[in-house]
Amino acid sequence: LTVLNAGRRYLKAEDLSGKVFVTSGLGGMSGAQAKAAVIAGCVGIIAEVDEAALLKRHKQGWLMEISDNLDHCIARLRDARKNKIALSLGYHGNVVDLWERLVCELDSTGELLVDLGSDQTSCHNPFSGGYYPVQLGFEEAKQLLATNPGKFRTLVQESLKRHVAAINRLADKGMFFWDYGNAFLLEAQRAGADVEKRGANKTEFRYPSYVQHIMG
Question: What region holds the Urocanase Rossmann-like domain (predicted)?
């Protein structure tokens, strides 16, 4: 319902075939995102750093394909988008790399390859494993979290700034991004990322909440 209503509200579209939804998280609640994309008929690319979560969703049949190669992900995205094929593709990697690759595609080809975007990492708990920084691999990050949580926190905040910078670039070209109630925008703001709404007070963000703007 969230994906369908986002399409209706932001894309003015009842039919989401050929539209692309990019997000992250395939754990507890976020695991349903892959299934939702296919039900809605769009192309869903969902990033997840934990291979165990990816394999679980694939085994369930909620995730149609898995890849750890961004070139392959972009190729599959282009093909499914062109042919209007419903697809749920799990990218085994950090979502920041995926967002930044989409910016590179925009810069090099002029194509905006994503229509809808969100995030379902556990940003209510970003410094204890809810969000993994793009600068490190999954296992390396887990080790750093255990041995130097202060450094881990710094890397998470740097990663959040990169994360938002890529989203902002794509949103400026017409992608519609929303907050999924996971404290992503709040933690990004605390990290110093550019998420504040222009001309508003500091409690307002430039991207809407799904509760008020989509489900409401």
Answer: 2-214
